[in-house]
Amino acid sequence: MSSRMLRPVRADRRTTSPRSAAPLGRRLPLVAAAVVAAGLTAACGPSSEPAGSAAAATAGQSSQAFPSESQSATASAEASPTASASPSPSASASASSSPTPSRAQSGSASTGGGSAKPARTSAAPAPAKVPGPGYDSSADAQKQIDAALRAAKADGRMVLLDFGANWCGNCKAADKVFAQSQTAGILGASYHLVKVDIGGNSSANSALLRKYSPSGGTYTMPVLVVVSPSGTVRTDTHVTGNPSLTSEGINSFLRKWAA
After folding, report:
1. 225-247 pLDDT, tens digit each
2. Calpha distance 139→205 (Å, rounded)
3. Backbone angles phi, psi at 223, to 5 degrees
4. For residue range 117-156, what is the model confidence (pLDDT) as tens digits?
5. CB 195 within 8 A of CB 140
6. Which residue of 73, 103, 111, 126 sits 20 to 30 Å from the alpha carbon of 143, by its own alpha carbon?
7. Under 8 Å between Cβ of 247 and 224
8. 243 preceded by cis ω (within 30°)?
9. Could you give the CA distance from residue 122 to residue 129 in angstroms, rounded to a whole number?
10. What is the pTM of this model?
């Protein structure tokens, strides 16, 4: 009786096993996924952080793995010798536009206000004009003497009055010496020469002779009178006598009264 009852049970197991085969096949992918997840958990270890921190950790790892743009730019600039050696166009422009102090400015900045002023050099006055030979009877002798005195006050030279006549032989001899280069140089450097004609009928010129040679009497021409810039008579050859009418005599006379 028992043997009869076991056979249906075995038959039932045989008949039921094919039915459960389909659902078990459908559950196999889920079981495999669970096994894979369990394997990953065992490999990585349990995580004590919440689920939201995983994304932050992943972002942090990615930021550590990849350097920032500024770091990469710095590294590329250090690695490239050409970029570090050649200045940028803006730097070149700023360097070229910046003014550099000139030598004159640097010299004035270094010396400051204590720069020495150049010494003033007084140029020697130009030689005075020496009249030619002869005497001009039409000239205004008084005006000529006044102009010579003004020039003497300005440059410190003496005034030499030469009273003579065109027909006087001694006056012509003196004119020849005055024309010589050495005597003309002394005259131009130290005197303003005024020649006054007293050989004619000019009362004005005769009055000038008596003014500057007041001793009177008979005059021996030429009469040479040296007058200072202030108008004072220093010497009168009508009183002292004429020097030798040679270059030595006249030059010695001129040098003596030029000081």
Report:
1. 999 999 999 999 999 999 999 99
2. 10
3. -100, 115
4. 545 455 667 888 999 999 999 999 999 999 999 999 999 9
5. no
6. 126
7. no
8. no
9. 21
10. 0.54
